[in-house]
Amino acid sequence: MGKNDFLTPKAIANRIKAKGLNKLRWYCQLCQKSCRDENGFKCHQMSEGHQRQMQVFGENPDRVVDGFSEEFEETFMEHLRHA
Ligand SMILES: [Zn+2]
C-alpha cells in the first residue's frame, strides 16, 4: 500500500464507515471538537477558542497541517495494530 493511499476520499470514507464515525461531519479538526449538529458547529465557529485556533493556523498553516498529518498517520497506524 502506497503512503498516500489511505489519504484518498474513498479510503477515508471506508475507515469512517468501519469505525461508525458518521458524526464526524460536524467535527472541527482545528480544535479537535465534535459538534452535535449544524447549529452547534456554527456556534463553535463563532466561539473565542475557535477564533484563536484559526489565528494560530493562519499564522503558520504549514506547521499545523504537518502536525495533523503526523497525528493522523499515528492514529491510523494505531488502528491497524488493533484491527
Ligand atoms: Zn474549532
TrEMBL record:
<dbReference type="InterPro" id="IPR036236">
    <property type="entry name" value="Znf_C2H2_sf"/>
</dbReference>
<protein>
    <recommendedName>
        <fullName>C2H2-type domain-containing protein</fullName>
    </recommendedName>
</protein>
<dbReference type="GO" id="GO:0006974">
    <property type="term" value="P:DNA damage response"/>
</dbReference>
<dbReference type="GO" id="GO:0005634">
    <property type="term" value="C:nucleus"/>
</dbReference>
<dbReference type="Pfam" id="PF25095">
    <property type="entry name" value="C2H2-zf_KIN17"/>
</dbReference>
<dbReference type="InterPro" id="IPR056767">
    <property type="entry name" value="C2H2-Znf_KIN17"/>
</dbReference>
<dbReference type="GO" id="GO:0006260">
    <property type="term" value="P:DNA replication"/>
</dbReference>
<dbReference type="InterPro" id="IPR037321">
    <property type="entry name" value="KIN17-like"/>
</dbReference>
<dbReference type="GO" id="GO:0003690">
    <property type="term" value="F:double-stranded DNA binding"/>
</dbReference>
<dbReference type="InterPro" id="IPR013087">
    <property type="entry name" value="Znf_C2H2_type"/>
</dbReference>
<feature type="domain" description="C2H2-type">
    <location>
        <begin position="28"/>
        <end position="50"/>
    </location>
</feature>
